[in-house]
Amino acid sequence: MTRSRPSLFSLVMALPLLLWQLAFFAFPLLFLVAISFWTVRNFQMTPDLNFANWERILTRTTFWDAYARTAMLATASAALTSLIAFPAAYAISFKLSERAKQWLIFVLIIPFFTSYLVRIYALQVFLSDAGIVNAALGMVGLGPVGMLNTTFGTLVGMVTLCLPLVILLQVFSLNFVNRDLVEAAHNLRCGRLRTVLAVIVPSARVGLVIAALFAFILSFGDFVSPLYLGGGNPPTLSIMITDITKSGQQWPRAAVVALMMIGTLLSVAFAAIAYAYKERGK
Amino acid sequence: MTGNSNRLIDAALKLHIAACVVFIFAPILGSFVFSLNSDRFPSLPLGQFSTEWYRLIWEDPFVWAGFFNTVIVGLVVAVIATVLGFGGAYTDFRYKFLGKNVYLALALLPPTIPVVIMGLAMLAFLSRVSLSGSTISVIIAHGVMCSPFAMAIIRLRLSQMDPDLEAAAWNLGSNEWATLRHVIIPFARPAILAALFITMAVSFDEFAVAWFVSGLDETLPVKILGFLQGQVSPRINAIGSLAFLSSITLIILAQVLLRRASRGTS
Predict the structure, then answer these.
(1) What is B139-155 written as a DSSP string?
(2) Where are the alpha helices (DSSP H) in chain B?
(3) Is A21–B110 a contact, with Cβ atoms under 8 angstroms apart?
(4) Which residues lie below 8 Å from residue A11, measured CB to CB, with a gap of 6+?
């Protein structure tokens, strides 16, 4: 079906998407690289090849503090979400009827289409000092516990964001685990926990790692939870970007922060994928 | 291991699923309940039933302006993203060519880029070409972000199609254009409609990139972000609940269409 010269028809089908994504996706990202070398004079960006922005950002301890904080939060969120998700995904994949499985998958898709902002606002009401959770704790004579504007608050928000996606990705990877292997392990009198750890987790490794990677990517870039549940001070990288962008014309510096984030995400993604597909037993 | 402890573990696992669902949906249901509550800052015990917050947003011209912007953006984005996504899905389905991986990466990667970075890149680029700060800029940005969803949905549907169907149409003398019109589009119609609904729902709730590029033509989610930065306002819950209801209607419509379609062919 392939031809030496593409037909008009094939071009009409293929090109609109290609052109749109080149013009409005690839090009803006490349443009970000360009403006990171530009200079700002009199509130105007002027094209330049100047390393001052990079120097300015990369020699600041505030940047590296924010960098470390963002990386730690994203790592903690990925780990926490994966750990919470796994028993649920395992049960959905191995214990539920086909019908119940489909229903749960549908239920877990719903949150993608709810406003993340509205959910975060509701979480503020749950977590604040006089909020729902503390009132409930108060009824049994506990608390109040400060949860809003803490790392705990940020992590609650991030887990809310990532959990549905991570459970779904884990369920899909667990569905591909060969049931005969599990059966064989049982017949060899391998205990339940050992079957999970020695048979199921290794054979679903690719999917489990990719689910954790998605949680890392989402949490690393999220500015809403750190800002509205974590208090925003000291900032994370994405809060830095919004602050710099909205407070003036220092977009070149924001571009440097953004490029550092992209670099980090790409390295983490490649490392995670290399690890996921690494041959077993090595 | 005894049967009893197995049953206990199964029960515990199911309880864990329930706990996860409660955790995920507590904020969503919470915002519903709070939107109908008289307290400005709800706590336990809850205040009285009240539709005050709905009345406030009903009477707020800024909310209406945001609502119209959101709907216009959503409609236009849905059409653009679905047309682009259909072309991409068909290209992936039918053709092999050099650089196809690059093509697919360009088409599908946008959702993995953090929204702050997308927002900044879009703002910097669009303001350079004098397209920022308007509804057009939100449409452009959402077109990029939504077309991968449309492409994925339509691609899945095309993979259910018998490849001989197209060949049969060509053998009967139908050219590619006529085959597209009389065979492929009718076959993919449920997925095309689903893609329209889903991309509209994604655009309805997108706030971050829209916040960077929208300028004065704010969409409703951007207004919510503004409310969040300002005073505590349960109006967010009222707007959020209405937005949720419209999104969920779109999703259920899409779901029904897709299920009916795959049942028809399998």
Answers:
(1) HHHHHHHHHHHHHHHHH
(2) 3-35, 52-58, 61-94, 100-108, 115-128, 135-158, 163-171, 176-179, 185-205, 208-213, 220-229, 235-265
(3) yes
(4) none
In a domain, A222, yes or no: yes
CATH of the domain at A86: 1.10.3720.10
Rounded to an integer, the average pLDDT of A77-94 is 96
pLDDT of residue A33: 94
Q: And the tokens for A2?
A: 């392939």
Mean pLDDT confidence for A57-66: 93
Phi and psi of B82, rounded to 5°?
-70, -40
Amino acid, single-letter form, for residue B8: L
- Dihedral over Cα of A89, A95, A98, A102: its sign: negative
B6, HSE (Cβ side, Cα atoms, 13 Å): 7
The β-bridge partners of B37 are: B49
Residues of A in contact with B28 (CB under 8 A): 110-111, 114, 118-119, 122
DSSP string covering A35-101, please?
HTT-EEETTEEE-----HHHHHHHT-HHHHHHHHHHHHHHHHHHHHHHHHHHHHHHHHHHHS-HHHH
Q: What is the pLDDT of residue A4?
A: 60
Mean pLDDT to the nearest integer, B191-202: 91
pTM: 0.89
Would residue A94 count as lying in a domain?
Answer: yes
Give the domain extent around A141.
Answer: 65-277
Q: What is the CA radius of gyration of chain B?
A: 23
Number of H helices, E strands in chain A: 15, 2
CB A204 within 8 A of CB A170: yes
pLDDT of residue A208: 94
Could you say which of B88, B116, B224 has the minimum Cβ distance to residue A242?
Answer: B116
Architecture of domain B56-265: Orthogonal Bundle (1.10)
Nearest-CA neighbor of A33 among A20, A18, A51? A51
Strand partners, A45: A40
A221 and B84: CB-CB below 8 Å? no
Token pair, residue A81, equals 């979400």
Q: For residue B234, is pLDDT > 60?
A: yes
Q: Identify whether the C-beta of residue A189 lies closer than 8 Å to the C-beta of residue A154.
A: no
According to DSSP, residue B180 is labeled I
Q: Is A230 within the bounds of a domain?
A: yes
Identify whether A213 is part of a domain. Answer: yes
pLDDT band at B231 (very low <50, low <70, confident <90, very high): low
String of DSSP letters for B181-194: IIIIHHHHHHHHHH
Task: Indicate the number of domains in chain A.
Answer: 1
Q: List B residues 57-116 in contact with A (Cβ-Cβ < 8 A).
A: 80, 83-85, 87-88, 90-91, 94-97, 103, 106-107, 109-110, 112-116
